Model the fold of this input.
Amino acid sequence: MIFKAVGDGRPYPDHGVETTRDWAAVAPRQVRLDELVTTKSELDLRHLLAEDSTFYGDLFAHVVSWRGVLYLEDGLHRALRAALQQRLHVHARVLELDLDGTVLSAG
Done:
């Protein structure tokens, strides 16, 4: 299995980190694909296979760490590309949340 689980939606509280500028404050690091729970259960294959799918927006996937679980909030296409290339890790910005959704640390 590529991911720890396939979810459908964000089970964690709203954290308020929305824009690319907000996420840029979170330092990227490597995350194992098999530790991620997706927040999307479907992906448009045209988006995955598009040549410029990683050109626009952030270069790194966005992951939220809440209650000991790593949720892949944005970057499913990047994670799947990494898996198709037989890589075990993806570079991601990991936002750590407290139980109530307060941002503990950005990276």
Summary: The first helix runs from residue 20 to 24. The mean pLDDT is 88.
